[in-house]
Design a protein that fits this description.
The protein is mainly α. The protein contains 5 helices and no strands. The longest helix has 15 residues, at 54-68. 9% of the residues are buried.
């Protein structure tokens, strides 16, 4: 550790702290039990409106949940769930398909 710290020109304590922090597993967003209703509603809304983007789906979900008195879903969370299950729209490349 001392040789590495001397070579980099930094103190040993921040270097050892950084190494010990990287060994701890970072909590990653994974499929949670409470995401099952979110996914079911996402699939229903995307099936009914296949051209809606994730932000519009989030707005529709928020409206439903406001009526039911439930907490709203963050648009980032909705996007992650839709991406994980292949529900996002294809990105527009600007090129039309077919021969030119």
């Amino acid at each position: 550790m001392k040789v590495v710290a001397d070579t980099l020109g930094v103190a040993r304590s921040p270097l050892s702290k950084r190494l010990s922090d990287s060994n701890t597993a970072r909590k990653r967003f994974n499929s949670k039990a409470e995401d099952a209703p979110l996914l079911a509603r996402n699939q229903r809304l995307v099936g009914a409106r296949p051209t809606c983007e994730y932000r519009r789906i989030t707005a529709l979900l928020s409206r439903e949940w406001a009526v039911a008195g439930e907490a709203f879903a963050n648009h980032k969370r909705v996007c992650r769930r839709m991406k994980a299950h292949g529900l996002l729209l294809a990105r527009n490349s600007g090129h039309s398909p077919g021969p030119h």
